[in-house]
From TrEMBL:
Lineage: Bacteria, Pseudomonadati, Pseudomonadota, Alphaproteobacteria, Hyphomicrobiales
Any Gene Ontology biological process: cell wall organization
Any one GO cellular component localisation term in the record: extracellular region
GO molecular function, one term: beta-glucosidase activity
Originating organism: Mesorhizobium tamadayense
Name listed for the protein in its UniProt record: Exo-1,3-beta-glucanase D
Length: 369
């Protein structure tokens, strides 16, 4: 009798993940069982709280209503500039805030957000920026270590603003820094430089058996970011585009005519380029099938921890249709999901301070089949 061939653990995980994707129904719970890891899902992002000195938390009543609605996960940014100093009051605020969310029944993704001085450092001195990120996690890992590993997930760096090779090296160093104090916490990471779903294809997993790869999805930007008002992008001048859509959609034709009449060829080119193929559920489904294939191939669970539609000048039906299409494509490919975000421009409730003003159509698009 010959001995069976030796199979590496990562190869075994890849085979198991492929079998899961091919044969098993999607669990309703947040705990998606891919490659042996628990992957939190059915969530939303909550910026504007622990990432700012003057940020504010949701009320207990709002959190209870969100939990009762079916949401299970909250993704929270922390500001690397604020954390790096090791200010005890800042760290206590972060730990207490996360502890309250866990006590309310939520899983929490805690992600390092590059802002202020850190953004400037990545632009002017990437090596110094890398050291700042490591310093921030060296401080913050003490907080994470005291929080339950089954509920709290550190995410290494949001939208790593560097070239892929530099990020892969820094990613391993951050992981080692966290592992020194947090041996059981699942580490979350995304590909450089925008964490886009298209960037995962050429990115290998971490050299770690307890990890989740995380991507963002906002395609097509001309639809999801129309009327954006925080920079001079041509997206600020695009409005009232529907989903689904093609170049022959009457609403699209009218909007392109308005842009041409205004002499805005930059905005026209953006819309036409993104409509080189129609915006449809099938197009979205293919993107997530590719993501599912990457997960199965590498034996690494995946999550979509940002997707959303800016609610400035889009019709409610199109907005909900896109959100439902993305969420269903994620579900179909065993991709966990966390919506961007709760109550600001992309949000689905009016205010974190009130139980009134919940958008029923958006919540249904996220949580109902």
């Amino acid at each position: 009798m010959t001995s069976p061939p030796k199979v590496s653990r990562r190869h075994a995980l890849a085979l198991a993940a492929g079998a899961v994707l091919a044969t098993s129904p999607l669990p309703r719970s947040a705990a998606l069982a891919t490659a042996g890891a628990r992957v939190p899902s059915r969530g939303f992002n909550l910026p504007g709280w622990l990432d700012r000195d003057d940020g504010f938390a949701p009320t207990r009543a709002t959190l209870e209503k969100l939990r009762q609605s079916g949401f299970e996960t909250i993704r929270l940014p922390v500001n690397g500039d604020l954390v790096s100093s090791g200010d005890p009051a800042t760290l206590r605020r972060i730990q207490n805030g996360i502890g309250d969310l866990v006590a309310s029944g939520f899983s929490v993704l805690l992600y390092m957000h590059p802002s202020g001085e850190l953004v400037a450092a990545f632009r002017n001195d990437p090596e110094a920026a890398a050291e700042q990120v490591l310093q921030a996690w060296t401080v913050l890992r003490v907080v994470v270590a005291d929080l339950p590993a089954q509920s709290v997930y550190p995410e290494l760096l949001n939208e790593p603003p560097m070239e892929r090779s530099a990020w892969l090296a820094l990613r391993e160093r951050i992981a080692a820094t966290l592992r020194a104090s947090c041996p059981r916490h699942t580490l979350v990471w995304g590909p450089a430089r925008f964490q886009g779903i298209w960037e995962i294809a050429g990115t290998p997993p971490l050299a770690d058996d307890n990890q989740i790869a995380a991507v963002h999805y906002y395609a097509p930007m001309a639809f999801t970011h129309q009327c954006k008002n925080w920079d001079a992008s041509p997206l600020a001048r695009i409005a009232n585009l529907p989903f689904p859509a093609s170049k022959d959609t009457a609403t699209v034709i009218r909007q392109l005519s308005k842009l041409r009449a205004a002499g805005d060829e930059e905005a026209v080119r953006l819309v036409e380029d993104e409509l080189s193929a129609p915006w449809t559920e099938a197009r979205i489904a293919q993107d997530f099938a590719d993501l599912g294939y990457w997960s199965a191939t590498h034996g690494c669970p995946v999550m979509l921890n940002e997707f959303g539609v800016l609610n400035f000048c889009v019709d409610a039906e199109s907005r909900a249709s896109w959100v439902r299409a993305v969420r269903k494509a994620a579900d179909a490919n065993h991709v966990a999901w966390i919506y961007w975000e709760l109550d600001q421009g992309f949000g689905f409730i009016r205010s974190r301070q009130s139980v009134e003003g919940f958008d029923g159509s958006m919540i249904a698009a996220l949580l109902e089949n």
